[in-house]
Write a structure and sequence with these properties.
- The complex is a heterodimer of chains A (about 230) and B (about 230).
- With about 230 residues, chain A is an alpha/beta fold.
- Chain A has helices at about 40-50, 90-100, 105-115, 130-145, 160-175, 190-195, 210-215, 220-230, and strands at about 5-15, 15-25, 30-35, 55-60, 65, 75, 150-155, 180-185, 195-200, 205-210.
- Chain B is globular.
- In chain B, helix 2 packs parallel to helix 5 (about 95-130).
- Chain B has one domain: MetI-like fold (Orthogonal Bundle), CATH 1.10.3720.10.
- By secondary structure, chain B is mostly helical.
- The chains are: A alpha/beta (about 230), B mainly alpha (about 230).
Chain lengths: ~230, ~230
């Protein structure tokens, strides 16, 4: 059970409100896609969900505990994931080192994660030598290796070609069988392929919070229609 | 030419005096660089990672101290260790220990400044990942130091090169005592003034070889490091 709660949350930058105020209670099952134009607040929302920083107002918690204090229950994958100056397998093992998991257990889990990402053959290569798509698969394996309750991803396929995007999406669907997944994306087609639930942000406000089926079959009006039609 | 030939002969014959001087040089500068690394690398990494009041000032100070004149370091350590100095009771002036202390002080800023430069880009790339994983300060420090290892080793080699080639600090605190504190550079200075150019030349050849080896190693390490460094378009 992963229940995310935003209680009157807002974030400002340079005197401007960039997100909120948001009140939200969401049971995270399957894949939730965060949609909206650039600068709508998707990344800020995602960062708050992981407790990367505190909001200026309000409280973000998961199952009644603050997002910051429960970071270890979740994984976060950045748009441009850090490629550590190590081998692929050492990259994937790193979160387990941070969690002080014993070496024997680490080896087993890293082996599984590398097979999952189809990177077993490249395990000992420097991670920097991987292609863009392989790097993102490695980053997803690194996010998944701790068996988190929730994985949060910020535009994970933003710089990938269609083939690499599909490979990543296949992995994400598998991940969603065991963990809640929340993805910020501006790719509506990707959201249509992946989402079970949709949150739409426009100008820092949460405009839509509904199932993907309802969202993609309904006719929208106002700013959401403007966004969907590419007017903003 | 005759001097050069005799110098080569000393090297080929592995002259005992020559080997003793080379051995002491390597021991003093090797230990100095090791101590400077143990103390300086974490300080350099901390300067790259954490923001605190006075950080910018410290960065400028360490960068400036990289060009610290060895005689000034020698004089400072001499004043500390001389009988009337605050550490005079240790009784280590004119011993290899004093030379190690002086060279450690000389290299410390180099290790700090070069480590900071090596760690800064690594930390910039890893910052988000490390925060997202709730990494402890110790893990952050260990991780960035390890992943900047090629730059840190380059700092170590640069420090060693500086220590083994300097003469001002070791001659002041070591005293250039035959069989006890005589190292390559101080021997070269002394033997040249005495007109014994063969030994001086032989030691000069060793020093130049060491300098070339250091530079070759720095180059090789930077090439290996490149394979692990991501090029973002």
């Amino acid at each position: 059970m992963n229940t995310l709660t935003f209680d009157n949350v807002s974030v400002s930058r340079g005197g401007q409100v960039v997100l909120g105020p948001i009140d939200l209670r969401l049971q995270l099952n399957g894949i939730t896609c965060l949609l909206g134009p650039n600068g709508a607040g998707k990344s800020v929302f995602l960062n708050l969900c992981h407790g990367m920083f505190s909001p200026d107002n309000g409280v973000v918690d998961w199952n009644g505990k603050s997002a910051i204090s429960t970071r270890r229950d979740r994984s976060f994958m950045f748009q441009s994931a850090a490629v550590m100056r190590r081998s692929v397998q050492a990259n994937v093992a790193f979160p387990l080192v941070a969690q002080k998991i014993a070496k024997a257990e680490r080896l087993v889990r890293v082996g599984e994660a590398l097979r999952f990402a189809r990177l077993s053959d490249q395990a000992k290569q420097p991670a920097a030598s991987l292609s863009g798509g392989e790097k993102q698969r490695m980053a997803l394996a690194r996010a998944w290796v701790t068996r988190p309750k929730v994985i949060l991803l910020d535009e994970p396929a933003a710089n990938l070609d269609p083939g690499s995007t599909r490979a990543l999406e296949t992995m994400l669907r598998d991940v969603a069988n065991s963990s809640g997944v929340m993805i910020a994306t501006h790719d509506l087609l990707q959201a249509r392929r992946l989402a079970d639930h949709v949150l739409v942000f426009v100008d820092g406000r949460l405009e839509i919070n509904q199932s993907a089926d309802a969202f993609f079959t309904k006719t929208h009006t106002g700013v959401v229609a403007d966004y969907l039609d590419g007017r903003i | 030419m005759e001097t050069l030939a005799k110098a080569w002969q000393l090297l080929i014959e592995m002259d005992a005096d020559l080997l003793a001087v080379i051995g002491l040089s390597l021991k003093v500068s090797g230990l100095a660089v090791l101590f400077a690394l143990i103390m300086g690398a974490p300080v350099g990494a901390a300067l790259a990672i954490w923001k605190f009041p006075g950080r910018q000032v410290l960065i400028v100070v360490f960068n400036s101290l990289m060009a610290l004149p060895p005689v000034v370091v020698g004089l400072s350590v001499y004043l500390l260790l001389s009988r009337s100095g605050p550490l005079g009771s240790w009784g280590i002036l004119f011993t290899p220990k004093a030379m190690i202390i002086a060279q450690t002080a000389l290299i410390f800023p180099i290790i700090v400044a070069l480590t900071r430069e090596a760690v800064q880009p690594v930390f910039r790339e890893y910052r988000g990942l490390l925060i997202s994983l709730n990494a402890s300060p110790v893990l952050v420090l260990r991780t960035v130091l390890w992943d900047a290892r090629f730059g840190v080793v380059t700092a170590l080699l640069a420090g060693f090169g500086r220590a083994i080639a300097e003469v001002g600090a070791v001659i002041i605190v070591g005293g250039n005592i035959n069989g006890l504190t005589r190292v390559m550079t101080t021997t070269i200075a002394l033997e040249t003034s005495k007109g014994d150019l063969e030994l001086a030349m032989a030691l000069g050849i060793v020093l130049i070889t060491l300098a070339l080896t250091m530079n070759a190693m720095i180059y090789a390490i930077s090439q290996i490091g490149r394979k692990y460094q991501e090029v973002r378009e």
